[in-house]
Specification:
The structure holds 2 protein chains of 2 kinds. Helices cover 33% and strands 25% of the residues of chain A. Chain A is of the alpha/beta class. In chain A, α2 links the parallel β1 and β2. The chains are: A alpha/beta, B mainly alpha.
Chain lengths: 361, 790
């Protein structure tokens, strides 16, 4: 693994800054992830919550980078999010207040998810091209979609489930993106590379975002695989202090996983009408009581749905573990995954506000 | 030495009884891996619809298209099917004077530069000879724009760096095509230019030009050949009216095989059948609408099939749709019955019979389908006959199924793969209808079974095993289980073989899964002592076996020592030590120390030693080690000695006995005496000794007996301390729900809580106040106290 000659110094300095902070003085920068592709704008409810709890950063996924047989790597799942500069709202409408505040105070941080498969057999030249392409599309989207309204962005975040075998290519990509963009680069960090930096390497970035979720295989039968506290603690406990400024990402989402003959089939999103076809049979589990079709899946009686979610009690407990086991820098960005109106019904704005303030106690 | 295991250890014997060991990797079979089928689509005449077989994978046909196009040919066939129609048109165009394969080469493979008057290509020569200059110019035109007319080109600018270049080119070619059309006299060539214009306009997102051109040269309701349907496909995307778009796509689906998947993919949801029907002008068009709708339906489609039959009994799709419906019923009836007979409810952590209700409903549906099938006639008689055979089989009308098989077999060529499928069904129907006490393999089917084994037909072998198991012939079932997924076929990769996967029918599981793909874990989980004993007796003592029976036995016979080990382990779980010793002694001594088996690694320790803290870590006492025979024999010996109340060392014997029982729990160094699988967090096995395995009941009992027998106060205190340790593990297991509290309450200390609950530690404090602090707080006090007794 090759690093800049200055890298050890950077690491030492970063380490010192972290080490000198007192936990009780941590300043929290409030953030959300925005991971949806389809909507062209934030809903009024989403804007309202951002405004009311003064979220400072929105990590918006602009696109994903997937393998492509012709181009090596190509963007997919591109965002439709766009600021409606010409939208008409009645004077006095609350949304005007929210939009004005967003323009002045909310920083949108372009976030790109890179599939690990992209990095498996990529040549140095292709990495150069990929970095340039990512930078090009990020700038293009930012100018097209946000620039007229939002402050210029200073950071790009890259999300990738990199492995030991792809770490070298991934780290090269990160360095190249930094070079061509001239921006600060942050990247997400799963708990495994956090726990085993000697094995997985330390990404050459300015900051890392520790993803405190999806710790277990979704096929785990009797556990909440979004966030299992025991697993979280086992990764955090006893780990050395990470040698880069560390931000924290927490999950507040939920999902419905469909099983037929106890085999996972896919993810569905039942609406209110569909709920009549299911009977709760135990925590997490619901069973179909009659035939129905949801999201293209033909569901038979006896089929089961596992609903996994994150309730406020669980998030509080996760925060407690993080505060106990991780020494946070100041300022630290706390980002919630992800911003969605349906989620905000479970985690209301007071609860979300409480999550952020828990870190600054 | 034993090891500290952080996550999961899965132990599987490597041998012929066990086919696959997947080490620690998380592997879970997909639902399709469990599916059982008798009549696969590939057994029948291949139609463009192959690839749209019933699957839980929405993108099965897409994968066939995109990933396996060269070798696994469904899509390749679909593309070829369409291309061949086009080639057929060209052949007619020149009066069928050139072989179609030559035309194919000229149209799809020949370089544009090779189209000239001096060409050696037969088709090009024929065109020149017949003076078809407009056709020659058209071919050059078509080849020049190939790169602009593909999905790939549409995707050439995903980074959005500007596709103006491509668009500009396309516009130029549209203009050129229009010029050529205006001067062209040949109506067929004009039509082809028009199609190219529509396609170019489509890729330029120019719906208006596409529509204008289509309306001038094509007619939605008058499509005759593949060019018309290709044009229909591209114009479908120009339709804002979703019912019209769906109508067009449904016509393309039934008539342009290369566009089937993409047509089905873009078929809009939420548009009623009536609205789409309103766009149709003939019954055939309406039938095509129902065809696409039926293909998109993974549920019950009988009503749609009836409607298609009523509208167009000659529908080319109908036989395949019938087959697809049969495959659904096979999945709904056979899969749960054989792979998941009594469903393990993951949600409840228990088994129940709720599947029975669904089974009955699906059988009713099978009966309704059979009733309809019996009334209709299909173009494909083989599909029709097989549907009747299969449905009768599913309804367990085995005699009727057998009669139909006999009648169908006689008309089939020996090389027809359907014949083999019928033979297998016949064999199963014959065996399945046997009464319990008659379970056997009739001689005429024995070669077939060996053939199935040789060809890795694992799912049929598995169904036979299961059927025997259900009939109570567990010994015969075991022999078939040993054959499932067990042919070490060196010529085929793992992924090339269809493996059988199944789930348990009892409450127990032997590994971290609730599914099985090999015999040993299944025996461990599902067979009881008497069934295992009967199996071993049969293998060892039954004489006069036929060649087939010997073949059936051979894998188990080669691995007999593993069965003895398993039976011994089952006895250990019941604390039947002499019986266990007897079985362990049947295992060759060399096995215990062999590097080929796990014992040498996981039982390489002193099973009669433990201290306050050691679980799986290496200790100084591990210079002595015990295999299963030695451990059991020594334990029996110690128990015998401990019965002598006059023996001054009785307390010491009991203490060692307790150590041994402790080590045979999850927390000890000899857990492999009772399990073939160990995990830090998965205690979810449910063998009959589970309580002791997790709560250390025997160990605690013997520590307390050792205490009672001891004349030394310090040793008695040590015994109580060790019993308290057992109590601790038991309390942890009993209080798993309370452990959660520590996540929410920062001040809550679970260890302290458990310690406070420990009555034996309280007793230690009360009865041995001088030793209490030392035994509880001093990490090194065990050695001191233990040495005093020694």
């Amino acid at each position: 693994m090759r690093y800049s000659p200055l890298y050890p110094l950077i690491v030492v300095l970063a380490f010192s800054v972290v080490a000198c902070r007192n936990k009780n003085e941590v300043k929290v920068e409030r953030a959300f992830y925005y991971w949806k592709t389809t909507p062209s704008r934030l809903s009024e409810k989403e804007s309202e919550v951002l405004y009311n709890i003064k979220v400072k950063k929105l990590y918006a996924k602009l696109f994903e980078v997937a393998p492509d047989p012709i181009l090596t790597a190509a963007p997919v799942s591109k965002t439709n999010l766009n600021v409606e500069t010409n939208a008409y709202y009645e004077e006095g409408s609350p949304i005007l207040t929210y939009l004005e505040w967003q323009r002045d105070s909310l920083t949108i941080i372009p976030t790109i998810f890179v599939l690990n498969e992209v990095l498996k057999d990529i040549s140095p030249n292709e990495l150069d091209t990929l970095a340039e392409n990512i930078n090009f599309l990020v700038r293009k989207y930012y100018i097209q979609k946000f620039n007229e309204s939002y402050p210029r962005f200073e950071e790009i975040q890259i999300d990738c489930d990199w492995t030991e075998s792809t770490s070298q290519n991934y780290f090269e990509l990160l360095k190249k993106i930094k070079t061509v963009s001239g921006k600060k680069i942050s990247c997400t960090l799963r708990l495994y590379p956090y726990k085993y930096p000697e094995k997985m390497g330390i990404p050459p970035v300015d900051r890392v975002m520790l993803m405190c979720y999806n710790l277990l295989s979704p096929l785990e039968e009797n556990k909440n695989t979004i966030l299992d506290l025991k697993e979280l603690e086992s990764y955090l406990k006893g780990s050395d202090r990470y040698p880069l400024p560390l931000d924290i990402a927490l999950p507040i989402y939920s999902w419905h996983r469909l099983y037929h003959n106890d085999q996972y089939i896919g993810t569905i999103q039942p609406d209110e009408y569909s709920k009549q076809f299911f009977t709760e049979i135990s925590p997490y589990w619901f069973e179909a009581n009659s035939e129905c079709t949801i999201d293209g899946y033909f569901i038979k009686p006896g089929d089961k749905v596992k609903i996994e979610s994150t309730d406020p009690e669980l998030i509080d407990a996760a925060i407690a573990i993080i505060l106990k086991e991780v020494e946070l820098p100041s300022p630290v960005t706390i980002s919630l995954f992800h911003l969605d109106e349906s989620i905000l019904n479970i985690h209301d704005q007071n609860t979300i506000d409480h999550y952020y303030t828990s870190f600054s106690r | 030495m034993t090891r500290t295991l952080l996550i999961i250890i899965i132990l599987l014997f490597h041998g012929s009884v066990i086919t696959q060991s997947r080490s620690c990797a998380r592997f879970n079979p997909d639902y399709d891996d469990f599916q059982l089928r008798l009549f696969r689509p590939e057994l029948f005449s291949c139609t463009p619809f192959c690839g749209f077989e019933y699957s839980y994978n929405d993108f099965q046909a897409y994968y066939d298209d995109e990933l396996f196009d060269d070798e696994y040919n469904e899509t390749r066939n679909r593309e070829e099917y369409s291309r061949n129609q086009n080639i057929h048109l060209w052949a007619n165009y020149i009066g069928n004077q050139v072989d179609e394969s030559k035309i194919y080469f000229a149209v799809y493979d020949l370089n544009m530069d090779s189209i000239h008057q001096d060409s050696y290509d037969e088709f090009i020569c024929a065109l020149y000879e017949q003076g078809k200059m407009e056709a020659i110019e058209y071919l050059k035109f078509a080849k020049r724009i190939t790169a602009l007319n593909s999905e790939d080109v549409r995707m050439t600018d995903p980074w959005e760096k500007g596709n103006y270049h491509s668009n500009l080119y396309r516009s130029k070619f549209i203009q050129l095509a229009q010029q050529n059309m205006s001067t062209c006299k040949d109506a067929e060539i004009i039509r082809r230019y028009a199609f190219q214009c529509i396609r170019l306009a489509h890729y330029n997102s120019d719906s208006e030009s596409a529509s204008t051109c289509f309306n001038e040269y094509f007619n939605v309701h008058d499509c005759k050949d593949i060019i018309d349907y290709w044009a229909l496909y591209y114009i479908a995307f120009a339709q804002e009216n979703l019912s019209m778009r769906n109508f067009l796509l449904s016509q393309v689906f039934s008539n342009a095989p290369d566009k089937m998947f993409i047509s089905s993919f873009h078929y809009a949801h939420g548009v009623s059948k009536e609205e789409v029907f309103a766009q149709a002008s003939t019954n055939i068009e309406k039938a095509n609408i129902c065809v696409l709708s039926a293909f998109k339906n993974r549920g019950k489609s009988l009503d749609q099939l009836k409607e298609i039959y009523a509208l167009n009994p000659q529908s080319e799709a109908l036989p395949f749709l019938v087959l697809r419906e049969i495959n659904k019923l096979e999945d709904w009836i056979l899969t749960p019955y054989y792979t998941n007979a009594i469903v393990y409810r993951m949600d409840k952590g228990e088994y129940d019979n709720s599947i029975d209700q669904g089974f009955r409903i699906d059988q009713q549906y099978a009966a309704a389908t059979l009733e309809w099938i019996n009334k209709i006639n299909l173009n494909d008689q083989q599909v029709l006959q097989c549907a009747k055979i299969d449905l009768n089989f599913l309804l367990r009308n085995f005699d009727r199924s057998l009669a139909l098989i006999q009648s169908m077999k006689s008309g089939l060529d020996k090389e027809n793969p359907l014949l083999l499928a019928l033979q297998k069904t016949e064999m199963m129907a014959t065996i399945f209808k046997q009464k319990t006490e008659e379970s056997c393999i009739p001689g005429k089917y024995q070669p077939l079974i060996k053939k199935m084994y040789a060809e890795d037909d694992n799912k049929i072998l598995f169904m036979l095993a299961r059927e025997f198991e259900y009939k109570g012939s567990t010994t015969l079932a075991a022999k078939f289980f040993s054959k499932v997924n067990n042919n070490d076929n060196q010529d085929r990769e793992y992924y090339e073989i269809e493996h059988a996967f199944w789930k348990s029918k009892k409450k127990t599981k032997s590994n971290q899964h609730f599914w099985f793909d090999e015999a040993f874990s299944y025996f461990d989980s599902q067979y009881n002592i008497s069934q295992m004993t009967a199996l071993i007796n049969d293998l060892e003592h039954k004489t006069g076996k036929s060649a087939f029976e010997s073949w059936l036995d051979e894998d188990l016979v080669q691995q007999l020592f593993k069965l003895h080990d398993l039976l011994g382990t089952m006895h250990i779980r019941r604390n039947q030590l002499p019986e266990a010793l007897h079985e362990f002694r049947q295992v060759p001594d060399s096995v215990w120390d062999s590097d080929n088996y796990p014992y040498n690694y996981y039982l390489n320790c002193n099973s009669f030693y433990t201290n306050f803290y050691q679980e799986h870590e290496i200790t100084a006492e591990d210079s002595v080690k015990y295999n299963k025979v030695e451990l059991t024999a020594h334990l029996i010996d110690l128990l015998k000695k401990s019965k002598n109340s006059n023996d001054p060392n009785r307390d010491k014997y009991l203490f060692s006995v307790a150590n041994c029982y402790f080590n045979m729990t999850k927390y000890g160094n000899s857990w492999m005496m009772r399990r073939y699988f160990w995990s830090t967090h998965d205690d979810n096995t449910n063998f009959e000794d589970s309580h002791d395995y997790l709560h250390c009941d025997y160990a605690k009992k013997y520590y307390l007996e050792a205490k009672a027998a001891s004349r030394s106060k310090t040793f008695a205190a040590l015994c109580l301390r060790m019993a308290g340790r057992c109590e601790k593990y038991s309390l942890i297991k009993n209080n798993e729900s309370i452990e959660r509290k520590r996540w929410y309450d920062r001040d809550f200390n679970f260890s302290d809580y458990i310690f406070q609950q420990n009555k034996l530690y309280k007793k230690l404090k009360k009865d041995y106040p001088d030793d209490y602090q030392e035994l509880i707080s001093n990490c090194y006090s065990f050695g001191k106290y233990y040495a005093m007794k020694k």
